[in-house]
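testing teh design pipeline on a random one, pls ignore if ur not involved
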């Protein structure tokens, strides 16, 4: 059979793992995860991944023609926490999909699809890097692709993390090639450009500036370090010019807007414990191979440096409120490369069975978690209820562009009424207020003066949000289990 396939020219297009039982199982598990991801693209769940509506609200505003970064202390008191690359990608893709920003599920589908594309590209990049640059077999490269794709954190299912993960990995790969090519200046310039793109995908990319500079210090390449710093500054200024209209608003959102404060009590239960549960033995293997490759070639030393410092960075930044296992995504991606490179180096018959057992354990355990946690049914009940409320507000109440509404519970309402809602990012606003990033004195003034005309709530009106009082409201209309209150 294999000879027939070879003669047909098909064999070279399919990795050998398809002809082994263990490889076939990996392939099936990968297909299952990919099917679930496709299934969930338009599932009507507003919190499929973390605080997904926060990103969707910013996308709705941006696609509809409003600025991406607005004053967090003026209506609508919105905070776009992330740098702009992801939003710009979604903006241009919205024309391809014909996205209607007034239909929230359209924007959710857009964001989830863009993220899925970049998740796939991240896995594909791992495959190409392992096969073409590290020099491992197609089978092992495909195992790397499968592990990375399956272990992508849910935060990257519909958020800037998806573009960031891809750009971080691409930046590392190009820097690796720079080292392998005897520190080619062409690759160095390309690397600095990609690092800035990574930073503008998500601020966390700043760690690459430190890691890459530290490598040049270890290698005693001070001229290249100076050259790198020059191009960092040049490209950073260029990107500010291209993507940022107002520096002050930009800083207020992506710097002050992420002032979450420290959370020592939640460090273990919210970060360490779920990270161990999700990545289990991959963490142990990763730390071991990272230390092992510190004694390897310069380029493998660099990958180890990236892994170790990314791990430390995740622990350090994980002390702030709202931390999740997604902070370790960069570490996991690099660790997959290092682990497969290690196995490729020591590959013998006696190591094959342990390797297969570990890979299948990792694939089965993660796939089981995804099936258990992320496979939702298409229940439009809540979505339809919110849509009825929005239709009433727009057609019966006739909300004007200057009419303000406060939706006091997490649901679809902030996205249906994105033109009128205030404080669409409630949990972010709360932490920013508690950490004194913003005082919201202007918001208090307009609430006291009655400029916030309506409150929409599931159940009784929430009398207080932060230090604002919503007592002077009476019931206007009840639709399903939503109550609409009007200022009196």
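output:
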């Amino acid at each position: 059979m294999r000879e027939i396939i070879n003669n047909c020219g098909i064999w070279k297009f399919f990795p050998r793992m398809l002809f082994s039982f263990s490889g076939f199982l990996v392939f099936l598990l990968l297909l299952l995860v990919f099917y679930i991801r496709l299934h969930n693209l338009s599932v009507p769940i507003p919190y499929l991944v973390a605080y997904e509506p926060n990103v969707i609200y910013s996308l709705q505003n941006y696609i509809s023609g409003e600025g991406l970064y607005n004053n967090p202390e003026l209506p609508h008191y919105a905070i776009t926490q992330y740098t702009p690359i992801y939003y710009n990608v979604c903006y241009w893709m919205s024309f391809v999909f014909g996205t209607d920003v007034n239909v929230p599920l359209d924007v959710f589908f857009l964001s989830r699809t863009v993220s899925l594309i970049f998740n796939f590209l991240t896995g594909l990049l791992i495959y190409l890097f392992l096969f073409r640059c590290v020099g491992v077999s197609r089978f092992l490269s495909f195992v790397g692709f499968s592990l990375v794709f399956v272990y992508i954190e849910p935060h990257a299912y519909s958020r800037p993390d998806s573009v960031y993960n891809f750009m971080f990995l691409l930046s590392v790969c190009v820097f690796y090639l720079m080292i392998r090519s005897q520190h080619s200046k062409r690759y160095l310039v390309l690397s600095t450009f990609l690092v800035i793109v990574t930073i503008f995908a998500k601020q966390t990319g700043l760690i690459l500036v430190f890691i890459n500079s530290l490598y040049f210090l270890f290698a005693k390449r001070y001229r290249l370090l100076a050259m790198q710093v020059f191009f960092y500054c040049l490209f950073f200024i260029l990107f500010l010019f291209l993507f940022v209209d107002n520096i002050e608003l930009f800083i207020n959102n992506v710097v002050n807007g992420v002032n979450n404060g420290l959370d020592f009590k939640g460090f273990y239960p919210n970060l360490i414990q779920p990270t161990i549960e999700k990545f289990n033995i991959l963490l142990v293997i990763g730390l071991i191979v990272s230390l092992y490759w510190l004694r390897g070639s310069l380029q493998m030393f660099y990958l180890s440096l990236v892994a170790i410092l990314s791990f430390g960075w995740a622990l350090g930044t994980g002390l702030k409120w709202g931390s999740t296992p997604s902070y370790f995504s960069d570490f996991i991606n690099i660790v997959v490369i290092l682990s497969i490179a290690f196995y490729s180096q020591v590959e013998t018959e006696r190591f094959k069975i342990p390797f297969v057992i570990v890979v299948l354990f990792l694939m089965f355990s993660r796939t089981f978690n995804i099936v258990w946690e992320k496979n939702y049914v298409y229940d439009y009940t809540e979505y339809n209820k919110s849509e009825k409320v929005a239709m009433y507000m727009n057609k019966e109440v006739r909300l004007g562009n200057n009419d303000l509404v406060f939706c006091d519970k997490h649901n679809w309402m902030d996205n249906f009424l994105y033109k009128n809602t205030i404080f669409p990012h409630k949990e972010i606003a709360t932490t920013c207020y508690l950490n004194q990033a913003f005082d919201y004195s202007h918001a208090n003034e307009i609430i006291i003066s009655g400029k916030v005309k309506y409150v929409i709530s599931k159940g009784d009106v929430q009398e207080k949000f932060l230090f604002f009082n919503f007592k002077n409201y009476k019931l206007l209309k009840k639709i399903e289990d939503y109550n609409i209150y009007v200022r009196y």
